[in-house]
Amino acid sequence: MTTASRPLRVIQWATGSVGRHAIPAILADPSLALAGVWVHTPAKVGRDAGELVGLPPLGVRASGSIDEVLALDADCVLYAPLLADLDEMCRILASGKNLVTPTGWVYLKDPALVERIEDACREGGVSFHGTGIHPGFGGDRLPLVVSALSRRIDRIEVAEICDLSNMSESPQMIFDQLGFGATPEEARANPPALLSVMSRIFCESMDMVAAGLGFELDDYRTGYEFALATRDVEIAAGTIPEGRVAGQHYHYTGFVRGVPMIAFRTYWKMTDHMEPRWPYDATLEYRVEIAGDPPLRCSFGPVTDGTSSEFGLLATAMNCVNAIAPVCHAPPGIRTPLDLPLLTGRGRVRLPA
Fold first, then answer.
1. Alpha-carbon distance 274 to 195, whole Å?
2. Where are the domains of the chain?
3. CA-derived radius of gyration, the chain
4. Cβ contact 106:173 at 8 Å
5. Each residue's pLDDT tens digit, 291-334
6. 8-131+323-334 fold
7. How far is the C-alpha of 1 from the C-alpha of 19, rounded, in Å?
8. Using CA atoms, how far apart are residues 15 and 35, in angstroms rounded to an integer?
9. pTM of the full predicted structure?
10. Is 351 in a helix, a strand, or coil?
């Protein structure tokens, strides 16, 4: 727990898709200060953090040394690598630095994981918080907020619709790790490894919704389907040939005594020219539907014509940055959205002169 009235000093861990949005947001908040930057790529080591995110020099040099970064005087680490490392996170916590991450970890139930992270939090006297746009907001916090309007709840469904065609990621990420461009045979035989990772993350998110509503899920089912391009498709990362995977649909369902109670459905697409063609035209949209009395629907997404990836990445970064102060001021330990006060855009309002 941090009680000092000075600006909270933040280390940005990784300057990729989320980190490059987080650094400007940290700089724009007078209650926060950028204390340091850790980078994975050797070519980024020693460069000014401003240069790495398209800003003027900031006087903060990026380091590739964990020892060097953890020796800095800082209150919090915004931990945003592509893949989380449990040992790394526990080391950060044990060093006395609060940790906020968009890599999952929203509502942990695995006893071994909980024990390891809680032990590290106790050693460092700090807090740990997992968040993001989904999970961390669209699939858990938002349904819980909407549920306050309900007299009866029969079922909750959350859908994420995302056009990834302009996603500013490497071809390796898009084709090798996410599985776009695969043949139908490859997709059936080897579903993306992301499916197992996302299954854990989204089942935890569904668990948090259930906990917030006062019940527990007793079974989970997951599934993966894909759609094929009906013509060659050009995307930011390259070309998806006709007949290859151009859309992916992941679904996760939580049950109570055999009855589906909470369902998450993710629709990722690279084009509308695919078969089957799912009936979702949005660039990016999150939908929450609560079957009950009254039946409810709530959705959100970008208002501008900007690319879906940039909106989603910025929103993810801001949900992390805006959680830093509440997490730093919370008692030590794992802190879920159920434990923290209402997170808002406090300090982000641009008032008239």
1. 21
2. 8-131+323-334, 141-304
3. 21
4. no
5. 999 999 999 988 865 555 588 899 999 999 999 999 999 999 99
6. Rossmann fold (3.40.50)
7. 24
8. 14
9. 0.91
10. coil
